[in-house]
What we know:
Lipocalin, 18 strands
Amino acid sequence: MFSVIINEKTYSVEKTEKELQVNGKKLDWDIQWISERKIHLIYQHQSLEAELVSVDAATKSLQIKLNQKLVNLQLKDRFDLLLEELGMTQEDSAQLQDIKAPMPGLILDLPVKVGDEVKKGDTLVILEAMKMENTIKSPGEGIVKEVKVSLNQSVEKNQVLIKF
C-alpha cells in the first residue's frame, strides 16, 4: 500500500497482481504504452494521455503531463506511512526537542554523549525492535544536554531517550 498526493489531496493506493484500488475502489482502466515515458489510457469512457516529465527519487515526487496539464505527484510508500504513523516525520523546527522512542525496543548503540553537538541526520540511537535495527537520526541541530538511556536497556514507546 502507498499513498499519492495530488494538489494537496491524498489518495490511498493498493496494488495487487490483478488490480489497482484507489481509496478502496477498483480502478478499471485500459492502458497502452506509447513510448517509454508516455501512456494512453481509457478511464470511465474518457481517453487520457499521460507523459512522465520528471522524477525526483530523493523526494519521491514526480511531474506528469496529463492531457497537456502539468500535475505534481508526491508518493509515500509503506515505510513513509509507517514512520508517519509512529510520529517520526521530519518536521522543521528551530530548536531540537526531546528524542523519544518511536516503539518499544532495546538500545543497541548510543553514539552520542552529553555535550555532543549534532547536526541534522546524525545518528543518535540504534534501537532494535521486532528483530530489526532502527536508526533514530537527529531531525535538526543541537547540543545533547542529557542521555536518559544506556546500552542494552529496554525502552517503551514514547520514552525519552535524549534531551536537548
